Fold:
Amino acid sequence: MRRLFGSVRARATLGATLVVAVALVAAGAAVLLSLKSNLMGEAGTRAERSARAVAAQLAAGAPYDKLSGLDGDDGPVQVLAGKRLVAASEDLEKISGTDSDRVKPQSPVAPGGDDADDSDDSDDHEEDLEPGEIAGESTFKNGSATIDGDTEDYRFAAIEVETHDRGRLKVYAGAPLAAEHGAVQTALTVMLIGFPLLLGVVAGVTWLVTRRALRPVEGIRSEMAAITASQDLARRVPEPQTHDEVARLARTTNETLAALETSVERQRRFVADASHELRSPIASLRTQLEVAAAHPELLDLDGAVEDTVRLQRLAADLLLLARLDAGERPGEAKVDLAGLAREAAEGRTGVTVDAEPVNVAGSRGQLGRVLANLLDNAQRHARSAVTVSVRREGDLALVGVADDGDGVPASDRERIFERFVRLDAARSRDDGGAGLGLAIARDVAVRHGGTLTAAQGPAGGALFELRLPLA
Structure:
């Protein structure tokens, strides 16, 4: 049971069925109440019509034994003088719901006589009537009556009439409620049978519709499970040919898989390239140490130190890249790019600095590393001169590093920012480094909310432009 209702389809079906059930119960109750009220009103109208017909005869002076409507065909009738029953329907055997439960007319009272039944406990605010006048308002009560052995429920209407010689009389006439009870019972029976069937249809349709709607989701889930089991990130989940949320989910999932595949491939390539770059200085250092162990007089101490420094720099670059990939946030300290550029250029031959004071927010150490990497790259390719400029450009700080070398071909101006990329294949590793400097510089720029691009410089060489938001 718990597993069943853990399904979205089961919960959707249950929810829809419950909502429809509540709506049906509310609507059914309203229909039954409205039907009962309407039928009760019709019965009251029929009873009032019968009562007024008898009252009209009494107002006209008709004697009790000559009143029409007392045959009981249209329902029970009582005529009361106060509490005394003076006329009643034929074959009336029992009655309730009126002012008197008597069924047989009582003998008239002798003139001047006294009878408790003649006392009238009617409302003191009864309507004033002229002789021969019938009251305009009727009152209604529910009761029952037995006529000729048949007992039924009735709606009684009571109306008063002022006669010329018999004083005020009250006429009760009843209309049967059998039709009302039958109609309500029939409607209730239909609802009790129809509502469960309708709920079954709603549940079935909802189950089928949600199954059809969620079928692509199951396809996505099963494919993701297969991808997880096989670790094949080249696979993609099926995308339904629709424009709904499920299709967008599938597209987003495939985009995530593509990004994950790219990231994993990048990590694999990074590990492979890092291993390749580390192998050369480690092998060289090992060789020198082995030679020194066998022939101490042949130890190339300068070469060993140089290889050790290369290893140290490469390890530092790899550590910084790992921190950047892990999403390390730069600091929020203010950094003066002009002063930082002068510090980075200090002691370098052929480097000139043209800088105005510009402050940005970030890590002084990382931004200094960017400038150092850009100057290292520029000096490596320059013929004689490198120029560093720092200025404002709108709401950005612009740092330019230009050289007078051969420049970077337009087709390679993005590729040079990839890790372990060196355009000059003939250049030795000792002269060219590991190909991580520009990659680190761009990653740091992006982490600081800026950009780093390559273009052609004024002297025909390469121009690297670093743009950062002002502090």
About this structure: The chain has eight helices and 13 strands. The CA atoms of residues 17 and 444 lie 57 Å apart. The chain has three domains: 1-108+127-230, 245-325, 333-469. The helical segments are 8-59, 178-230, 245-294, 301-325, 337-345, 364-381, 429-432, 437-447.
